[in-house]
Amino acid sequence: xxxxxxxxxxxxxxxxxxxxxxxxxxxxxxxxxxxxxxxxxxxxxxxxxxxxxxxxxxxxxxxxxxxxxxxxxxxxxxxxxxxxxxxxxxxxxxxxxxxxxxxxxxxxxxxxxxxxxxxxxxxxxxxxxxxxxxxxxxxxxxxxxxxxxxxxxxxxxxxxxxxxxxxxxxxxxxxxxxxxxxxxxxxxxxxxxxxxxxxxxxxxxxxxxxxxxxxxxxxxxxxxxxxxxxxxxxxxxxxxxxxxxxxxxxxxxxxxxxxxxxxxxxxxxxxxxxxxxxxxxxxxxxxxxxxxxxxxxxxxxxxxxxxxxxxxxxxxxxxxxxxxxxxxxxxxxxxxxxxxxxxxxxxxxxxxxxxxxxxxxxxxxxxxxxxxxxxxxxxxxxxxxxxxxxxxxxxxxxxxxxxxxxxxxxxxxxxxxxxxxxxxxxxxxxxxxxxxxxxxx
Length: 441
What we know:
There is one protein chain. By secondary structure, the chain is mainly alpha-helical. Helix content is 78%, strand content 0%. It is built from 23 helices and no strands. The protein is globular, with a radius of gyration of 22 Å.
């Protein structure tokens, strides 16, 4: 019964998000509470679950608020204008080249193992280019998310750490056989970038007549390039511009090294960027007021997602779904349980958090597999490869909510745009791993 209630709760939330008819905080807050009440929990217990959920996302919410403010100030200062102009000059308006570059940049940014910092580094820098080229921002998020997911098969990434702790194996040894899969996955992401880039190019030409006309188009320029209107004239030729560059590099460097929490890094960055670019207190306040609405809107969604995760975890719905999903499978397919879960890994991202997938589903699947002679490590590889590609199409990912806020996009539209591509890539990688012998029967 708990599994059915949990599944119904998640299904209703996903459907409402996909329809895009309501702000995400409404289903994320109300539907889990209703589900918990139906499951027999009282409001005091639900309040406790809510508190636990907030603890899990509060740092992301704080980081998000100050990251939006920081990058907003940097955009106003014209920090990214030379980067945009240079990249467009190098690519000569080549949509495919920009798509490939997005995959490569995201892969490098993900080397620290943090999806949140990857989005914080890549989206503010690349989004203006996509806007100027009239490319879909959902393509940007798909390419960054897919590339970052594949690169996240690293020992210091969350998924491998969780799997290694469940199997009680060394995480580095677990990673080594996955290196060829990572390499193949990155090649496939570049191929996908070429294909989707060509498709995007056809759409742009169909709409504007040519790439050149799209770049020169004034459509939506008042909103897409509002930061240029507020930039200080000639700032790229002054010492202040280079101080902004140094500040941005320093903040990003702190993010990558992890010396201090990301939220604190952006707090400090904002406190330094405001007086650097605005001498008067009134101007500093106006700058905060300008960028605060976007920051606070998405921060509320992240906090709502924390409530959602806290209630589903606290009630045991996620664990129950994970265990019952395996036990209800027909007996004739249980010898292939690891392959089946691997193939369905991306859809599981819509039902389970990363913790539930690895700490609840993996132990059950591994136990069933061993009774049929399936090596535990093979079960782990099937589940890792099958699931990890879909990390950033999941409403359970706080980093994805951060990315959506940075890009000003909707969860439902992102899932519709990216889900099938990521699932297809996941299935291909599972099959490749099987034929390479990484996954065995």
